[in-house]
Here is the input.
Amino acid sequence: GENVEQHPSTLSVQEGDSAVIKCTYSDSASNYFPWYKQELGKRPQLIIDIRSNVGEKKDQRIAVTLNKTAKHFSLHITETQPEDSAVYFCAASRAGGTSYGKLTFGQGTILTVHP
Amino acid sequence: GAVVSQHPSRVICKSGTSVKIECRSLDFQATTMFWYRQFPKQSLMLMATSNEGSKATYEQGVEKDKFLINHASLTLSTLTVTSAHPEDSSFYICSASASGGPYEQYFGPGTRLTVT
Here is the structure.
């Protein structure tokens, strides 16, 4: 099955700096890659996603890049703010077969933005 | 739109008892629902996938007789933890997909289960 590795496990930045979180996946058939932000005790919140027919997607301060050949994708947050502090998870899924729509999550990154 | 609710939000039960958690899609029909478990400071681990009207598909290592999943309608799925033990204490989160494809899953708010 799919395996998703996420790095780093913790990331500490100063307010205004950029933050980058990277993930690799193992199943070349995966074609959907969402990123979630989760605050303590709350549900994961989708912040951006990308499908395999696109190499990059941007939404204001957040961007995701996908390299299908290398099977890795990254989350980029610019101009970080203290309210960006949370746990971030990457995930991967693919259509077809018995894995249809099933998400495999990375291990998570604890992002801390210092004022 | 695309709201998923879960009930209860928190539950404390005694060891050996059973607990039922409900997951509802409030404004869309969920062809597929997923159940996850999240231990403190860990990632979300998929327990099972359920499609309306059919048996759930469990992930390797998840006991189907212990975690009973029912997806009786396009808006409701239930997870019953049978004969709960302290090691079952966790955060249980459901999600629902409208299309069943590799698209966005809508997550419920989660249920914090504590078994004493």
